[in-house]
Amino acid sequence: MNSTNDTVETPETGRAGRTGRFRGLAGIGLVAALAAMAAVTLAAALAKAAGVDFELPDGGGETIPLPGFAVVTGFFSAVGIVIAAALLRWSARPAERFVWTAVSLTAISLVPPVLVGANTATVTALLGLHLVAAVVMIPALARGLRPRRDSGAAGHDSSALKPSRQEG
C-alpha cells in the first residue's frame, strides 16, 4: 500500500547510500593524496637537482628533506579529505563549497613561503609545490563530492525509483 508520503530509499537518501558516498570519497581522497605526495616529492627532487637548496634561514639554516615534502603533503591532503567529508555530510552543495574553501586555503598557504626569508629559488619552488598539491587534490575531491547521476545503466529506467501515487 503506497501513500503520498512513501519514499523510496536510493543511494542518495538512505543511510547505506550515504555510507557508500563517504567510502567513495575516502577512496578517491586516498588515491589523490598518494598521487599528490608522489607528484610533490618528484617536483621537489627535480627542483633540488636543478639547484634549489630548500634552505630555510628562519629555521636555523636547515634544509627541507625530500621525505618532508611527502609527509606534509600527506597530512594536509588528509585535512582536505576531512573537510570534504564534512561538507558532504552538512552542505547542500558540497562540491561547490569545497572548491571555494580549498582554493581559499591554498591561497593562504602561499603566504608562509614568501615570509620565511628564503632565497628566491626556494620561495618560487615552494610556491610551485603548493600549487602542484592543489592541482591534484582539489579536482579529485570535488569530483568525488558531485552527486552521482543515474545513467539508466543495464536498461533500467530511473523513473522506476520515484515513488508512485495511488488514489483510493
UniProtKB/TrEMBL annotation:
Organism superkingdom: Bacteria
Keyword terms, alphabetized: Membrane, Transmembrane, Transmembrane helix
Membrane spanning stretches: 25-46, 66-86, 98-115, 121-142
Region (Disordered): 148-168
Coiled coil: none
One Pfam family hit: DUF6069
InterPro entries: DUF6069
The name this protein goes by in its record: DUF6069 family protein
Native source organism of the sequence: Actinomadura monticuli
